[in-house]
Design goal:
60s Ribosomal Protein L30, Chain: A, globular, 4-stranded antiparallel sheet, 15 strands, alpha+beta, Translation, Eukaryotic Peptide Chain Release Factor Subunit 1, Chain A, 5-stranded mixed sheet
Length: 358
């Protein structure tokens, strides 16, 4: 699941909208409990729909829920699962992050836990270049989930010349033009995803395809490459290959972010603490947000002044369960960047700091 998926779910409004969230497991014996938990949550959801709508009106949603669940293959489970059903939309998402089990029936889908998981995970894109075909994956640590849609997977279908070419040099030039055009198309299709979810990019392929892609791409955040033919490599094995390379690149990115912070502090272009960073982020001035990995903070946002008041986690007046998470979303929405650092590294800045564009 990527940010575009969540945005589409968040735009959806329908009463009732059913969300079922649950943790799942990849290996035995833990995964033996997954079918039981799923069955129990589906039963709870069914009972609550009948109670809310009546048996007759609830029947279409229940049938759709049963159809979605029947298609689930728990042998392919990751660490969490989200099931969404309404009159207009239904889908199941396997996630590489654990979720707390719950059933939510509201006028919109429950995406809060998904947003949290999205923001706090080491995520990246993996593009595997090939003629048969080029594939796109969303990565979370060593887990890759293939993206299907928006042109992916993309097959290179070279047009044939209408007449035989008299010289090999002419055919070679034509083939080069075909390849360049194909990878331009790949780059444009990729841009639709990276614009909505600007994650670091790892590119995989034989040196020939890598060279073509480097020549035409507009993507600047390529943090890693892995050379080799992986047309037949499974997502599980490919994830094991690329994650160490990406992890090293993300470590370098964190250090560069800390260096950028030092420069911003020297130039007095920064805001520290949750309240001040929130205010500057609202103004659209945030360039780079640095957050300690374990920092969470309940808060109340005053609707009239838009001021943020920090509260204890159990304070009933809180209307933001985790204002840090909302700050992350706000900075990303304003085209800023977010980097997580180890706990304690931003102690002098109140655990969160924002470098400013001006």
């Amino acid at each position: 699941m990527n940010r575009q998926d969540i945005l589409e779910l968040q735009r959806h409004r329908s009463d009732p909208s059913l969300s079922i969230l649950l943790p799942t497991h990849r290996t035995s014996p833990d995964n033996k409990r997954d079918p039981i938990l799923l069955k129990n949550l589906v039963t709870e959801a069914t009972d609550r729909l009948v109670e809310r709508l009546g048996k007759r009106d609830a029947a279409p949603m229940i049938r759709e829920l049963e159809r979605q669940v029947a298609a689930v293959d728990l042998r392919q489970a990751l660490d969490g699962m989200a099931i969404f059903v309404s009159a207009e939309h239904a889908g199941v998402y396997l996630l590489p992050v654990p979720l707390s089990p719950r059933v939510v029936i509201d006028d919109s889908f429950a995406t809060r836990d998904l947003v949290f998981a999205l923001n706090r995970s080491a995520r990246y894109w993996v593009l595997t270049l090939s003629a048969q075909p080029t594939r796109l994956f969303e990565g979370v640590r060593d887990t890759l989930v293939e993206v299907r849609g928006g042109g992916f997977p993309m097959v290179h279908e070279s047009p044939e010349a209408e007449e035989p070419l008299p010289e090999m040099t002419e055919r070679s030039k034509l083939e080069q033009a075909w390849h360049k055009q194909f990878f331009r198309d790949v780059d444009r299709a990729l841009a639709a995803y990276t614009k909505a979810d600007p994650l670091p990019l790892c590119v995989v392929g034989v040196e020939r395809w890598l060279a073509y892609f480097r020549n035409v791409t507009d993507h600047k955040d390529i943090v890693a490459t892995h050379t080799g033919n992986h047309d037949q490599t499974s997502p599980r094995e490919l994830g094991k290959l690329v994650w160490p390379v990406v992890a090293d690149a993300l470590s370098v990115k964190r250090q560069r972010a800390l260096d950028a912070l030092d420069a911003a502090v020297g130039a007095q272009r920064f805001a520290s603490g949750l309240g001040e960073t929130w205010r500057r982020a609202q103004e659209g001035r945030g360039e780079l947000l640095l957050v300690e990995q374990g920092y969470h903070q309940a808060a109340r946002l005053d609707p009239s002044t838009r001021q943020l008041h920090l509260l204890a986690a159990n304070d009933a007046s809180a209307n933001m369960a985790d204002a840090v998470d909302d700050l992350i979303e706000l900075v990303l929405a304003k085209q800023g960047d977010v980097v997580f650092v180890d706990d304690g590294q931003l102690e002098g800045h109140g655990r969160v700091v924002l470098t400013l564009r001006y």
